[in-house]
Amino acid sequence: MKNINDLTGARKDKIRAALEAGPGQIPIITARGASLPEAWENSMLGLYAYGTDIKTEYDRTDSEGRLIDPPSKDCTMIMIVENPSQDPFIHKAFPGGLETLEEYRQEVIEGVKDHWVRDPMDPEDKRWEYTYHERLFNYRLPGAGNGTDQMREIVKHLARAPHSRRAQAITWQPWKDAGIEDPPCLQSLWFRLVKDPSGAERLNLNVRFRSRDGYDAAFMNCFALVLMQEETARQLADETGREIKTGRYLDISDSYHIYGRRIDDFENRFLSQVCTRKFEERTWTRAFAQEIFNEAKRGIADRIALQDAKYK
To answer: E strands along 85-218, which residues?
Structure first.
């Protein structure tokens, strides 16, 4: 599905019949794209058109407890990016700027905010419960000293057994996450090497989220995780001395949603771009964005240092 606005008549009815869920069922929607911005855009169009209406735990109420937010749009989403490293690389309609995207990359890939994770033994510590980088690169059990670098273990394991089905990393900690205010949405990463027809080895990645704000968070999540896929392929190439390329990126969300209070913004900003601009005009290349990323690094470091001072 390139663009839902192109679908008319019998073709649209046929697709709607295939996607709409029965009573009491969450719709299951598959979106595909050659590049990351194409796949994300298609996922949002599918969610908006075929998602079910359902309230959330975060809907606002008035002083008398009555809901004031419309219901969210929700589905189970399977998003497939066939060539995650190719251009165009960034969609202009994701909520946030390129500086925000670079800061998120540093948070997930480099762990620049891992020191903000609270001490679980200190009830007065009000810092973050976790970061994705901390869970993936330093997964710790209660009372344990050193954590496990799951991403390093993935590289080592695939170097020994390229065909393995065991190369995964998890974030969920059942002894604590079910009871915290903001538990991890990302649940697991699963990697596997497959040879393409030319004989080149490609690192495929499956990602699973339990819950996902499709509009406000998903593109940033995918952007960082595709870069992690690329970095893992580079480390695996260094480990083995073989050429390792990125394969397809698969992203599964149990609950993929747009909050009701964000529907107007989605329609006015996202859908207006889809309806009025060519695909090339609503995306950026990696080279274009990289210059802005580089310029943003000093400001990001200053903001992190300022927050560090507040936590002391």
So the answer is: 90-91, 168-170, 186-195, 201-213
The alpha carbon of 202 is separated from its chain's Cα centroid by a whole number of angstroms, namely 21
pLDDT reported for residue 14: 53
**Pick from 211, 206, 210: nearest CA to 251:** 206
Alpha-carbon torsion (261, 16, 81, 132), positive or negative = positive
Q: Where are the beta strands (DSSP E) in 82-125?
A: 90-91
Please provide the size of the chain in residues: 312
Instruction: Give dist(CA 33, CA 162) in Å, integer.
Output: 27
Whole-number average pLDDT of the chain? 91
Q: What is the residue extent of each domain of the chain? A: 25-311
Single-letter amino acid code for the residue at 75: C
Q: Cα 98 from chain centroid?
A: 16
Closest by CA position to 40, among listed 272, 246, 279, 229: 279
pLDDT band with cut points at 50, 70 and 90 for residue 142: confident
Residue 81 CB partners (closer than 8 Å, separation 6+)? 33, 34, 35, 36, 39, 222, 226, 248, 249, 250, 251
Spatial neighbors of 200 by CB under 8 A, at least 6 apart, are: 243, 245
The partner residues of 73 in beta bridges, in order of sequence, read 53, 258
Q: How far apart are CA 230 and CA 224, in angstroms?
A: 10
Number of helices (H) and strands (E), helices first, in the chain? 9, 9
Count other Cβ atoms within 10 Å, centred on residue 161: 12
pTM for the predicted model, two decimal places: 0.90
Cα 166–chain centre separation: 22
DSSP 74: E
Yes or no: is domain 25-311 CATH 3.30.572.10? yes
